[in-house]
Structure formats: structure tokens, C-alpha cells
């Protein structure tokens, strides 16, 4: 059941951002008037539009950046859908359960952190199925948008970065660009890197962006991201379909991701 919650305005975004609930999954979304021919699906919807909901009251400024980049590329701004994770006071581990690549751990990858990860409690597959089979189709219709897989991207950071890459494995026929900022490889270490990269779709029909910072938690990602990059290139991914960037002096937070999110957006929208 879909329930309307509220609409609100954000500086730098024309019109209104709408908040609705899809059977307890909260979603914020924005569309240009008349709809769009591009779709951007974003994890951690709390951090996309509304700074009152955002971690440390700072958002990605995703829509503001997407609007600007789309205009520079001569395209209509995308329909942007931010899906909230399910962490709450009742279930503080909801985000981990939503965004963990479920099949990897069901097939034998061991959790390095958090060590209390209970595979039987994961529901990442249902979370993604809801996004692709319920949320996206309804909002595409609601906004009078018309999009193809080639014009659809998914974006996420940290655990959301992992969920974005995992979506490329499970739903490669539904979108063709994965933008994974600071993917949280330490969750499963090298075995998770190997499992994920080896299962990604064919590079002839897909584009992937990965990035990391050099400060704080992101500093610990270097050996895992280096391994992922090397494996991607060994599998034949080249510059036209794969980018991996290091942003020096950036950390593991929304302010850092907002500082360079225009670059993965351009990687997508310039295609």
C-alpha cells in the first residue's frame, strides 16, 4: 500500500520533493515537470534531499548536482528516487540487513565486520526487488516519465555502494550504470571483492564507477579497492565502461561524497 506523507521544498531544486511510503518503506522523490527520460535510484534516501533527516544534517545535494550536470550535457534532469533504509530504534541494524549483498554471504563469504551479522536476518534481496518491481515502476508512471535501462543508474555510498554493485548482479537487465562511492569492502574483505567483481554483468552493456577517499574509514579501503580495480581490468573492463577514482583528503561522509558526486553523475549522463 502506498501512502502520501508530505511534500517540501529544497533550495536549488525546482518545485517540490515528495515523500511517500510503500508498505513501510519511505521514499523521497523529485522529477522535473512533465517527467524525465532518465532515472536515478539512490540508496540511503535519508541523505539525498532533506537535511533534517540526513546524517549530521548534510545531504549529498544529489538533485542539485544532477540538475546542473544534466543541463551541461544537454539532457533533461533525471527522476531521482531516494529509498530510505529501515534502521530504527526498534531495529538499529535495519540498514545492514537492507544493503548487505545477501547472496554473497549465503554462498559462503564470511562477515569480517560486523561480526554479529546474521545471514538469516538479511533481506537485501527483498529490498532490491521492492525497488525495481514496485517503487520505480509506480513513480515512473506517477511522474509521466519514460526511461530505458540504458538511461537508468543506481547510486550509493558505503553499504549503499555494495548494494549498488549487488543490484548490477541481480538486476542487470533493469539498469546499465552502477555508481558505487566508497563501497564498504571490509564487510567481507577479499572474498567479498572476488565474489562481487566476478559476478558483474558483461562490460559491453554496463558501466561501473567506483571511488574512495583517503581519510578516516575510507583510508582502510585501499587494499580492497586496489584488488577490485585489478580484477576489473583483468576481466577486460576499460576506461569507456569502468572508472575507479581516489579523492585525496575526502572522508567517509555525506559532505565528502557531495563534493565530487558531480563526477560520477557526468560519467553516467555524458554517455
Summarize the structure.
By secondary structure, the chain is α/β, with parallel strands linked by helices.
Description of the structure:
The protein has 271 residues and is of the alpha/beta class. It has a single domain, classed as 3-Layer(aba) Sandwich (Rossmann fold), CATH 3.40.50.1820. 34% of the residues lie in helices and 21% in strands. A nine-stranded mixed beta sheet has the order 1-2-3-5-4-6-7-8-9, with helices on both faces. Helix 6 packs parallel to helix 7. The longest helix has 19 residues.
Keywords:
271 residues, alpha/beta, Rossmann fold, 9 helices, globular
The CATH topology name reads: Rossmann fold
Please give the number of β-strands: 9
Strand content: 15-25%
Shape: globular
Q: What is the CA-CA span between the terminal residues?
A: 36 Å
Low-pLDDT residue spans: none
**For the report, how would you describe the main beta sheet?**
9 strands, mixed
Question: Multimeric state of these chains?
Answer: single chain
Number of helices: 9
Cα-atom radius of gyration: 17 Å
User: How helix-rich are the residues, as a percent range?
Assistant: 25-40%
Q: CATH superfamily, called what?
A: Alpha/Beta hydrolase fold, catalytic domain
CATH architectural category: 3-Layer(aba) Sandwich
Adjacency order of strands in the biggest sheet: 1-2-3-5-4-6-7-8-9
| Highest-level CATH class | Alpha Beta
What is the structural class?
alpha/beta
Number of self-contained structural domains: 1
Question: What is the succession of H and E elements?
Answer: EEEEHEHHHEHEHEHEHH
Mean pLDDT: 96
Amino acid at each position: 500500500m502506498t501512502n502520501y506523507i508530505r511534500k517540501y521544498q529544497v533550495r536549488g531544486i525546482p518545485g517540490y520533493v515528495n515523500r511517500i511510503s510503500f508498505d513501510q518503506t519511505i521514499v523521497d522523490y523529485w522529477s522535473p515537470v512533465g517527467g524525465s527520460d532518465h532515472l536515478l535510484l539512490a540508496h540511503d534516501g535519508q541523505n539525498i534531499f532533506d537535511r533534517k533527516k540526513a546524517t549530521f544534517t548534510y545531504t549529498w545535494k544529489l538533485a542539485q548536482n544532477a540538475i546542473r550536470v544534466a543541463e551541461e550535457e544537454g539532457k533533461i534532469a533525471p527522476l531521482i528516487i531516494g529509498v530510505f533504509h529501515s534502521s530504527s530504534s526498534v531495529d538499529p541494524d535495519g540498514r545492514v540487513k537492507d544493503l548487505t549483498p545477501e547472496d554473497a554471504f549465503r554462498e559462503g563469504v564470511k562477515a569480517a565486520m560486523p561480526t554479529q551479522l546474521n545471514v538469516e536476518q538479511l533481506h537485501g534481496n527483498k529490498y532490491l526487488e521492492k525497488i525495481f518491481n514496485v517503487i520505480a515502476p509506480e513513480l515512473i508512471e506517477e511522474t509521466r516519465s519514460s526511461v530505458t535501462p540504458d538511461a537508468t543508474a543506481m547510486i550509493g555510498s558505503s553499504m549503499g555502494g555494495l548494494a549498488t554493485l549487488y543490484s548490477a548482479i541481480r538486476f542487470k537487465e533493469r539498469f546499465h550504470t552502477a555508481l558505487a562511492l566508497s563501497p564498504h569492502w571490509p564487510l567481507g574483505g577479499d572474498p567479498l571483492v572476488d565474489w562481487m567483481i566476478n559476478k558483474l554483468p558483461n562490460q559491453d552493456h554496463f558501466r561501473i564507477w567506483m571511488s574512495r577517499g583517503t581519510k578516516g574509514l575510507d583510508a582502510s579501503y585501499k587494499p580492497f579497492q586496489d584488488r577490485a580495480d585489478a580484477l576489473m581490468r583483468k576481466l577486460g573492463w576499460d576506461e569507456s565502461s569502468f572508472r575507479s577514482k581516489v579523492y585525496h583528503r575526502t572522508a567517509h561522509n555525506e559532505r565528502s561524497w557531495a563534493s565530487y558526486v558531480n563526477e560520477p553523475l557526468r560519467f553516467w549522463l555524458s554517455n
